[in-house]
Amino acid sequence: MSRSDGKIIAVIGSGLIGRSWAMVFVSGGYSVKIYDNQPGQSAKAITEIRKQLAELEEAHMLRGTLTASQQLALLSSYDDLAAALQGAFFIQECVFEQLEVKQSIFQDVERLVGPDVVLSSSTSCLVPSNVFSRVQNQSRCLVSHPVNPPYYVRLVELVPHPETAMTVMNATHALMTEVGQAPVLLKKEIDGFAVNRVQAAIIAESWRLVQDGFISVKDIDLVMSEGLGMRYAFIGPMETIHLNAPEGLEDYMRRYGEGFTRLLHSFGPVPDFCGAGAKSVAEEMYELIPNQEAQLEARRQRRDQLLRSLARLKKEQQ
Ligand SMILES: NC(=O)c1ccc[n+]([C@@H]2O[C@H](COP(=O)([O-])OP(=O)(O)OC[C@H]3O[C@@H](n4cnc5c(N)ncnc54)[C@H](O)[C@@H]3O)[C@@H](O)[C@H]2O)c1
Ligand SMILES: *[C@@H]1O[C@H](CO)[C@@H](O)[C@H](O)[C@H]1NC(C)=O
Ligand SMILES: *[C@@H]1O[C@H](CO)[C@@H](O)[C@H](O)[C@H]1NC(C)=O
């Protein structure tokens, strides 16, 4: 008997991320009850998941030890919130990224669940102290921020509310690990968490180098995909610097720290992402990949195919 046997997780909101979470949790053997406030939407999500599970099984990419039909049997859909929450020990919220919508759904959820149920939000951009401001017992609340698509990109940022109990962080860390995700713990909340802060730094400097005429859109993308990204898929920036000097991290900073400081001081203000100057960056991108639905969709499929292959490779390395 595994830890997940008979245990129920409720997923609230059955869009892109809600469906992905449902697939991740059933792969770990949990029963998942999906709720959406658009009537019929959660049932539609299960139809979509059935298709995806069959394709994954066919491609030998299904996660977990259960078959696609066993995983499907763990899913159920609800148009009624109270019925969906019944029996759940963990709630993963995946509704629209609007503060008011999230605050109000958590207010409703808290009235309907017992005191030990964990309330977890998928929010990308809202901090826990705002999302959970209308919850009475904030010690059981946290953000579990996934990266899209969570089925192949395993990282989940766990971000505490100032009141969140350490036991709740630990239990969620254990749950995420058990279902095959790669959780990281933020010690306290900050706008953007870790992922979007690092991402913003990379995007801003890439944008600046293009906009200021130093490099093309095509070539800045190659800097990442053929250069830095090669090792970042396996080791992060801290290990990278630790390995890149004979005596490790402090030696690295003795050698290169002054250079980095000089570069960082030359970064300048936040680039203009939307004004007149942005037009030429966009046009250069559209020359490479037109902003037409068909072309964008083809590139998205290529991206997901490549991520699947990389996920397989990383699994073999474990
Ligand atoms: N899409 C991403 O790349 C991504 C990545 C990480 C985190 N997130 C976060 O996940 C959350 C969901 O994003 P998504 O891309 O799945 O959005 P989405 O628009 O695809 O899905 C949202 C779903 O929530 C439902 N919904 C809205 N209000 C509701 C309510 N009050 N009660 C129940 N259901 C409700 C909608 O009907 C819809 O089905 C957001 O907070 C988003 O920031 C998204
Ligand atoms: C608040 O939540 C914690 C963590 O889930 C729980 O242990 C505690 O019993 C709850 N307190 C109240 C008053 O409901
Ligand atoms: C949480 O986990 C950490 C690391 O595993 C451990 O040191 C700590 O005692 C745990 N705290 C609680 C309250 O469970």
UniProtKB/TrEMBL annotation:
UniProt key word 4Fe-4S: no
UniProt-listed InterPro entries: 3-OHacyl-CoA_DH, 3-OHacyl-CoA_DH_CS, 3-OHacyl-CoA_DH_NAD-bd, 3HC_DH_C, 6-PGluconate_DH-like_C_sf, 6PGD_dom2, NAD(P)-bd_dom_sf
Keyword Kinase belongs to the record: no
Pfam families cross-referenced by the UniProt entry: 3HCDH, 3HCDH_N
Keyword field: Cytoplasm, NAD, Oxidoreductase, Phosphoprotein
Top EC class, one word: oxidoreductase
Assembly and oligomerization: Homodimer.
Entry's localization field: Cytoplasm
E.C. number(s) listed in UniProt: 1.1.1.45
Annotated site residue numbers, Important for catalytic activity: 145
One GO process term, biological-process aspect: fatty acid metabolic process
Example GO molecular function: L-gulonate 3-dehydrogenase activity
Protein name: L-gulonate 3-dehydrogenase
Gene Ontology cellular-component annotations: cytoplasm
Domain 3-hydroxyacyl-CoA dehydrogenase NAD binding as annotated: residue spans: 9-188
Domain 3-hydroxyacyl-CoA dehydrogenase C-terminal: 192-258
Family: Belongs to the 3-hydroxyacyl-CoA dehydrogenase family.
